[in-house]
Amino acid sequence: MKIGIANDHAGVDYKNRLVEWLKGQNIEVVNFGTDTTDSMDYPDVAHPLAQAVLDGKVDLGIALCGTGNGMAITLNKHKGIRAGLAWSKEIGALVKQHNNANVLVMPARFIPYDVAQEIVNTWLTTPFEGGRHQRRIDKIDC
Ligand code: RB5
């Protein structure tokens, strides 16, 4: 399993902690994000992450910014990317079960780190339900 992770300045700390935790789970991580807290523009790292997922260079993606919305809006411009914003463990499960999100987005400024880690763990271990949800996903692209 290889995961790409992208973050702006608001997500550096959570990115670093998640990378360590993911490596501890024997997951390979490719870092697309900034490594400093200097202000930067989230699309500059969101687009390369989306392309890496679409090209199969990584299996899944994780994105962090202040609210999560900038990342989610940018990532979802790419056909084939399903970037789901999650701020609780329950939504982390549903975004996989129902939406089969291939990128998980979290609002680093609005959730504690332990919740972010729990969301990632839940999203990674929860299966997609398929069925009616596959039908709905098939209707997303236009
Ligand atoms: C940065 O201040 C902030 O705008 C960004 O992290 C994100 O929340 C944008 O959607």
Structure report:
With 142 residues, this protein is α/β, with parallel strands linked by helices. 43% of the residues lie in helices and 17% in strands. It is built from six helices and five strands. Strands 2-1-3-5-4 form a five-stranded parallel sheet, sandwiched between helices. Strand 1, helix 1 and strand 2 form a beta-alpha-beta unit. Helix 2 crosses helix 3 and helix 4 runs parallel beside helix 5. The longest helix is centred in the N-terminal third of the chain and has 13 residues. It is globular, with a radius of gyration of 14 Å. Bound molecules: D-ribose. D-ribose binds next to helix 3.
Helix and strand layout, with pairings?
Elements: E1 2-7, H1 12-24, E2 28-31, H2 43-54, E3 60-65, H3 69-75, E4 83-85, H4 89-97, E5 103-107, H5 113-125, H6 132-138
Parallel strand pairs: 1-2, 1-3, 3-5, 4-5
Helix pairs in contact: 2-3, 4-5
The structure holds D-ribose.
D-ribose is lined by residues 8, 10, 42, 65-67, 69-70.
Low confidence ranges: none
Instruction: Give the overall silhouette.
Output: globular
Broad structural category? alpha/beta
Q: What is the N-to-C succession of helices and strands? A: EHEHEHEHEHH
Keyword list:
single chain; 142 residues; alpha/beta; five-stranded parallel β-sheet; 6 helices; 43% helix; globular; binds D-ribose
Briefly, what is this?
The chain has 142 residues and is an alpha/beta fold. 43% of the residues lie in helices and 17% in strands.
